[in-house]
Specification:
388 residues, mainly alpha, MetI-like fold, 3 domains, three-stranded antiparallel β-sheet, 16 helices, 61% helix, 9% strand, globular
């Protein structure tokens, strides 16, 4: 019977590794409590979530997770684009219109429009055009042709659209709002120091308390602050939380009010590191204040901009508490017509209201992929800018 022989180089590497472990045994022993906690509460849930995303599981004890592969991801991400043709009359071949609730052919519709009646062209039903399992997500017109976008999970795409829109607005306004505050409060005076504390307070205040106050401000009930002011001046009251036109505005306003303080502190630290000699030399050369800001301040603040934007993107894509507290009701979690639905709130609704835990885990991993890609793009753009 032959015995396996370990090559000399491999034996030396193993013995060297074991010697290093023994030599630094105290350091590794001190790290063990953290590694144990991180493994149990960090690595294990991540691994379990990855496994769960490939299954169909509803949290029922008698029904263990059933492996479905990547079907969850296909159902979430599946999209279809189809042309939506007009509905035609079988007898005449003319397009059908709806005029005052009545279905008429095109020639009759033109006569009725001449008398001032409003008519609207009828299109084929989306379910007759879209593939099986797809529902209408949105439609648009291009060069006189109507197209329809279908999805197996329209709510996910609605949540992703809302989250992207919220991220763009909140990160943009919070970043440049924080920069503006840092520029105005740059001088070391008592008033500026006090204002810095005031603007930074929302960043260290409980998010639940803040959102509860904002819900009270915009509620349409008798105790709502804004509508109370409107009623005092005799103005018409507005149902802010039940109006889709106000949903995203309220979310971005809240992000701006509570999100400017932290970037302000970072930009203040960055401005202190800008050498004053550069401003003095530029002023001697005849550069104006806007030119100094553009060619000195902005380039030297690029690392701060990059950090603020990346952290803002990560935080905005994970927004949950604002939507859950301000816009959730007993019937829905994403506001009226899902106008405030975000990816994390959709994940929560799918996993803990509908108990589709495997599907919710797939949504979580897609969100991770989106955040990862957005972060890599931001870092890449920051590095490209550093080359010039």
């Amino acid at each position: 019977m032959e015995t396996a022989v370990i090559p000399t180089r491999r034996r030396k590497s193993i013995s060297g590794f074991l010697f290093t472990l023994w030599k630094k045994r105290i350091s590794y022993a001190m790290l063990m409590p953290f590694l144990a906690v991180f493994t149990v509460f960090g690595l294990y849930p991540i691994a379990w979530s990855a496994r769960l995303s490939l299954t169909e599981y509803r949290g029922i004890k008698d029904k263990p997770p059933q492996y479905v592969g990547i079907d969850n991801f296909k159902n979430i991400l599946s999209l279809s684009f189809k042309e939506l043709p007009p509905e035609l009359d079988e007898a005449t071949g003319e397009q059908i219109f709806r005029c005052d609730g009545e279905k008429v052919i095109e020639s009759v519709a033109r006569e009725m429009e001449a008398t001032g009646v409003s008519c609207e062209a009828r299109m084929v039903r989306p379910r007759d055009v879209l593939p099986e399992g797809h529902s209408e997500y949105d439609r648009f017109s291009f060069r006189g042709t109507t197209y329809i976008i279908g999805a197996t999970d329209p709510r996910f795409w609605k949540a992703l659209y809302n989250t992207t829109l919220y991220t763009m607005g909140s990160v943009f306004f919070s970043t440049f709002g924080g920069l503006a505050l840092a520029l105005f409060l740059q001088k070391q005076t008592r008033v500026n120091m006090t204002l810095r504390v005031v603007f930074f307070l929302p960043a260290v205040t409980s998010g639940i308390a803040i959102t509860a106050v904002w819900r009270w401000i915009f509620t349409s009930q008798n105790f709502g602050l804004v509508n109370t002011v409107f009623r005092f001046f005799g103005w018409e009251q507005v149902t802010f939380l039940a109006n889709v036109d106000w949903t995203m505005r309220i979310l971005i306003w809240l992000a701006l009010w509570g999100g400017m303080g932290f970037p302000m502190i970072l930009f203040l630290a960055g401005l202190k590191n800008v050498p004053q000699e550069l401003y003095e030399a530029a002023a001697i050369d005849g550069a104006s204040v806007p030119q100094r800001f553009r060619h000195i301040t902005i380039p030297l603040l690029r690392p701060t901009f990059l950090y603020v934007v990346v952290m803002g993107i990560i935080g905005a894509f994970q927004v949950f508490d604002v939507v859950y507290i301000v816009f959730s009701t007993t019937e829905t979690i994403g506001g009226v017509l899902d106008s405030a639905l975000t990816v994390v709130t959709y994940l929560y609704d799918t996993g803990f209201n509908m108990f589709e835990l495997g599907y919710a885990a797939s949504v979580a991993w897609i969100l991770f992929a989106v955040i990862f890609v957005m972060t890599m793009i931001s870092l890449r753009l920051g590095r490209v800018n550093e080359l010039y």
